[in-house]
Design brief:
alpha+beta, six-stranded mixed beta sheet, 12 strands, 27% helix, elongated
């Protein structure tokens, strides 16, 4: 009888391990400006050139001469009137359990660094949004907010917007006490007015 109990327990433990799929790992990662959780798909939003490139471009319809007269107004415009988001999607190797998501919610943080290669100025901070799903984590923020913070540091918020200001370099990261869950992605952002 002890042998059968041990065999039964071993089979249950084996099935439990298969069902859980082992430790939670990162299955994939991508720069993801907008995420549709229902269809589990990344949307490019305002960006062109999202696929496998380090450089992202925004074709902006309103030339600076016809639009906002300061960077502060332009950043306000791309936050409220024509929202442009940036984001980072990390998919798990398997669905996270409710207990794992509860633990991850406390442990994971979404951070950014935006810098201007020409001026050498840059800032770090936390991204505004963090959406934890069974299948992954999406971190996001508004480009207007991040640019506004950088331009405030540079002292140019009240300057006239110029397309020659770009590119800027943006790094989005997921930080964790568990080293195997830490990830980051860096992109150069260009804006072309038409």
């Amino acid at each position: 009888m002890n042998w059968i109990s041990f065999r039964t327990l071993s089979a249950i433990a084996f099935l439990f391990t298969i069902q859980c799929g082992g430790d939670l790992e990162v299955g994939s990662q991508e720069f993801c400006p907008d995420y549709d959780a229902i269809d589990d798909v990344c949307l490019s939003g305002a960006f062109n050139g999202l696929e496998d490139t380090q450089e992202l471009q925004i074709q902006f319809e309103m030339p600076p001469a016809q639009g906002p007269s300061t960077w502060k107004q332009w950043n306000h415009y791309i936050y409220f009137e024509k929202p442009i988001t940036v984001g980072f999607l990390v998919r798990w190797s398997r669905d996270a359990t409710l207990d794992e998501r509860t633990e991850l919610r406390k442990d994971l943080s979404c951070e950014f660094r935006i810098e201007h290669p020409e001026t050498g100025k840059g800032i770090n901070g936390h991204l505004e949004g963090k959406r934890l799903e069974e299948n992954g984590l999406w971190c996001f923020d508004y480009l207007g907010t991040l640019l506004g913070e950088l331009q405030k540091e540079e002292g140019i918020l009240n300057n006239k917007p110029e397309s020659s200001y770009f590119p800027v370099e943006l790094t989005l990261s997921v930080e964790s006490s568990k080293k195997h869950l830490r990830r980051e992605v860096t992109r150069r952002i260009l804006v072309n007015w038409r």
